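User: Sorry, folds how?
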Amino acid sequence: MADRSKQANRTMPAVVEKIIKPSNPLLPEKAQIAVAEADDLYREIRIENTLTDQNGNEVRLKEGAEVEVIIAADESHTEVKT
């Protein structure tokens, strides 16, 4: 993982709207997450519902969970806003 001290970032609150079960049991479950600060047409994102906790265990999000979406970029990929 990149050194966070050298990254520009923004954190936005979000909520897990629903958990989507796959039609094929070999495919992963998805979590649909609503990002409150995003534009209306781009508010929902879907990700594989697999996370890792602080002990290295695989965990999954619950419907209704409050989460944070972090956008981070290496400073070399940003420019000063004028």
User: Anything to note?
Assistant: The two ends are 30 Å apart (CA to CA). The first strand starts at residue 7 and ends at 20. The chain has a mean pLDDT of 93.
